[in-house]
């Protein structure tokens, strides 16, 4: 993927990536990233489908190669601002319609994009995500999510220490083993693949991460679900503790043209753990709906 840059509405410098169109008139798929991984999380899907589609994705403001917004910009990390960053990218690339494919946080950004960019989405692919205030559903115990906002405030103030701790943890070869034992990653996940994902994550300035997470925690797109009248594919794992499959099933019932795939053994990283299955299902979904 070629890296390009664009200046967004408030002057923030945004890094985005594109693949070349495989042929004239090829459809465009917008990959809407999660907060817990870079664009490399989509590697399997891009490799499998790039002979048919053009892909565009971007680093959220304050994440990876995108710059941090000015502290004077109100709500600078709000989900709506990420959509405006996407608007700037679409304008630069001359893209008027396409597929919105979101993972984790990207599900909420994709839903917000559907709201704010009417007529753009020909279809939606939503993986391991939710539509409302994700911190309230995080964790296995009811009510646990109420503890996260004050913890986030503390972590944001101590972001320099958090950055050092994260870098040290991500550099440990045993990190994947720990995460698998905790049930946060599936046993089928290739350790080398995951190591490639966490390497850039370990270089993050965690202040941008925490500010994005804090803004995400207040986002609610529940009212968008009843407005969606394009084909929608929802994919989740039955072991996803971050966005439990009940949320995916709830979305599938609310969206008029929704289909759902629940992957047995899949965690929050279902598309990375089961790349062939997920890619094949997306390919079939696109074909079934003429995309």
Automatic annotation (TrEMBL):
Provide the AB hydrolase-1 domain boundaries. Answer: 29-278
Record's protein name? Alpha/beta fold family hydrolase
Keywords from the named record: Hydrolase
For this protein, the record's InterPro entries field holds: AB_hydrolase (IPR050471), AB_hydrolase_1 (IPR000073), AB_hydrolase_fold (IPR029058)
Q: Gene3D superfamilies given for it?
A: alpha/beta hydrolase
Query: What GO MF terms are annotated?
Result: hydrolase activity
Q: Please give the PANTHER family that the UniProt record associates with this protein.
A: BLL5160 PROTEIN (PTHR43433:SF1), HYDROLASE, ALPHA/BETA FOLD FAMILY PROTEIN (PTHR43433)
Q: Which SUPFAM superfamilies match?
A: alpha/beta-Hydrolases
The UniProt entry, under Pfam families, shows:
Abhydrolase_6
Q: Which organism is it from?
A: Sorangium cellulosum (Polyangium cellulosum)
């Amino acid at each position: 993927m070629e890296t390009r840059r664009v200046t967004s509405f408030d002057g923030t410098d945004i890094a985005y990536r594109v693949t070349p169109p495989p042929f004239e008139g090829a459809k465009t798929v917008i990959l809407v990233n999660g907060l817990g991984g870079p664009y490399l999380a989509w590697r399997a899907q891009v490799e499998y489908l790039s002979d048919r589609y053009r892909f565009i994705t971007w680093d959220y403001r304050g994440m990876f190669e995108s710059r941090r917004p000015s502290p004077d910009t109100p709500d600078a990390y709000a989900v709506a601002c990420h959509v405006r960053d996407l608007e700037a990218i679409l304008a630069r690339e001359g893209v008027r319609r396409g597929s919105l494919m979101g993972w984790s946080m990207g599900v909420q950004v994709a839903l917000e994009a559907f709201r704010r960019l009417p007529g753009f989405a020909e279809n939606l692919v939503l993986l391991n995500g939710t539509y409302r205030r994700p911190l309230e559903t995080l964790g296995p115990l009811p009510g646990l999510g109420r503890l996260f906002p004050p913890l986030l405030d503390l972590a944001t103030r101590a972001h320099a220490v958090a950055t050092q701790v994260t870098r040290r943890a991500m550099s440990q070869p045993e990190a994947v083993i720990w995460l698998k034992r905790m049930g946060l990653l599936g046993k089928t996940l290739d350790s080398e693949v995951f190591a490639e994902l966490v390497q850039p994550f370990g270089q993050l300035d965690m202040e941008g991460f925490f500010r994005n997470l804090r803004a995400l925690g207040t986002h609610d797109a529940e009212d968008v679900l009843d407005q969606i009248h394009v084909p929608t594919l929802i994919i989740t794992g039955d072991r996803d503790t971050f966005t439990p499959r009940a949320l995916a099933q709830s979305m599938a019932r609310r969206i008029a043209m929704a289909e759902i795939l629940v992957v047995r053994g899949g965690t929050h990283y279902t598309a990375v753990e089961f790349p062939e299955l997920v890619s094949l299902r997306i390919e079939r979904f696109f074909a079934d709906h003429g995309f």
